[in-house]
Amino acid sequence: MADKNMRFLVVDDFSTMRRIVRNLLKELGFTNVDEAEDGQVALHKLKTQHFDFIVSDWNMPNMTGIELLRAVRADQQIKHLPFMMITAEAKRENIIEAAMAGASGYIVKPFTAATLEEKLNKIFQTLNK
Amino acid sequence: MPDHILESGDSPELEALFDSIATQQAVEPEAAQPADSNSAAPSLPEDVSPAVMYEQIGQLTRRLHDMLRDMGYDKSLEKVAEAIPDAKDRLGYIATLTENAAERVLNATDLAKPLQDAMEASAKGLGDRWNQLYANQLSVEEFKKLADDTRQYLANVPQQTQATNTQLLEIVMAQDFQDLTGQVIKKMMGMVKLLETELVTFLIEFSPGTKKAEIDPLLNGPVVNPEGRGDVVTSQQQVDDLLESLGF
């Protein structure tokens, strides 16, 4: 079972979406959640604070989710962090691109609470192996 | 539609929107006239430098304009030209309204959730104690206290359900944007359709037939119409299947 105190970073340029993801995480027992409105802000937070899990949108200004993912995977300090993509981008190329760049999970919007829970659990299982 | 909303008098944003539309419409008729006036019949471009291309476009526009006027289309195009600045404001208006609605709903659930949680916890607690009573595990004193607590709980429930109902109503009321955005979107669909028809005519007549490459193939946003497209997924299951087939 995953540690309920683990710290999440939710990255999305829409505050509504950040709030929804935050609420869903809270429902699942994860209350330790911080937010960032784009990849740039997120990367700064990731480098200066401790996080255990990243949930990110793809299409954002300044720095997109895929750029953030690549930056995270290229950084020795944070490259191990699980990275879940939650996005409206539904082209096969997108999914393949994200997987190749090292995404831990890929959820297409609109999504349900059950999907989020299932994908999180799958990632936790992989982590515990 | 703006009049109808102004009557309710609750939105300064809306008044500002109305004013900006009114100003733009006053300016618009001049902008609808293309600048280029001499109209020698243009030949189609072969080897095009940007300057030549722009001039060609100017001439084509003029010719198109004349042609459309001959066919009686100029009035409809004028309508489109007038509608564009209006439409931009209206799209911004939709973005604001939908965002506000989402905020209202999330606020309401934030308020209602603790009430529900508290009622659930109390009911569970009382239920457990009643079970103890039926298992003969309570003293007379404890039973009296349980009866008292239960009575008080029952007295409190309507107050809490009313508070929750208030938030449910708030959620319902937050959907009032649908009516407004629906009207605006319908109006814009009409405009876009008109614009599309005119542009297609233009392209069929003057396009050299080369297709432009997509700018960023990975930033497309939501798939609005997946029908007949093999390059997009339409469900989470398909995402999972694809990832699995790749060994992830």
Account of the 3D structure:
The complex is a heterodimer of chains A (129) and B (248). The model of chain A has no long low-confidence stretch (mean pLDDT 93). Chain A has one domain: Rossmann fold. Chain A has 129 residues and is α/β, with parallel strands linked by helices. In chain A, helix 1 links the parallel strand 1 and strand 2. In chain A, strands 2-1-3-4-5 form a five-stranded parallel β-sheet, with helices on both faces. Chain A contains five helices and five strands, in the order E-H-E-H-E-H-E-H-E-H. Chain B has a domain of 171 residues: Helix hairpin bin (Helix Hairpins). Chain B is mainly α and 248 residues long. The N terminus of chain B is likely disordered. At the A-B interface, helix 1, helix 4 and strand 5 of A face helix 4 and helix 7 of B.
The total of beta strands of chain B comes to: 0
Named CATH topology of the domain at 2-31 and 73-213 in chain B: Helix Hairpins
- Please identify which CATH superfamily of the domain at 2-31 and 73-213 in chain B we are dealing with: Helix hairpin bin
What portion of residues of chain A belong to β-strands? 15-25%
Distance between the termini of chain A: 12 Å
Helix share of residues of chain A? Answer: 40-55%
Return the domain count of chain A. 1
Strand order of the largest sheet of chain A: 2-1-3-4-5
Structural class of chain B: mainly alpha
CATH class of chain A: Alpha Beta
Tell me what the CATH architecture of chain A is.
3-Layer(aba) Sandwich
Describe the main β-sheet of chain B briefly. Answer: none
Strand-residue proportion of chain B:
under 5%
Shape summary of chain B? elongated
What would you report as the Rg of chain B, rounded to the nearest angstrom? 31 Å
Compute the average pLDDT of chain A. Answer: 93
Order of SSEs of chain A, N→C?
A: EHEHEHEHEH
Q: Write down the Rg of chain A.
A: 13 Å
Name the chain pair with the biggest interface and residue counts per chain.
A-B, 27 and 24 residues
Total strands of chain A: 5
What is the approximate shape of chain A? globular
